[in-house]
Amino acid sequence: MANALKKFGDAALKPLFRNGSWQKPKVSARIAADLKKEVLFAGGEWPHPEKESKQKRPFGQYKALKGHKHEKEKKARLEQIAKNMADMPDTIAAYRESRKLKPASLLDTLLSSRKEIRMKQYRSPSNK
User: Fold this and answer.
1) CB-CB neighbours of 79 under 10 Å
2) Looking at the whole model, is its pTM more than 0.70?
């Protein structure tokens, strides 16, 4: 493996993206660490750059959670409910007006059953 490091240099420690897929590095991280340890114990200097470590959060600090959709939309939903409640008296009056019985015509009373008459009385002209 030391030969691969000499031959390819830093590129032997990095994975390659070739032909649409990632290929493993020529020298694995474990073997590179063993080689580095041998060089440092022998009193030499490791010629390859150190891998950059990611910054970690201090213990107890966590990334804020994204939240749920219903929590994000709660304000808009409450505003819509308040608007609908303000319009509620008009809505109720319109509903009650639509449910009032309409007088049945003489022809309907003669030719229809009681159930059919009742159904026609409840239907408003706008719902036909």
Assistant:
1) 10
2) no
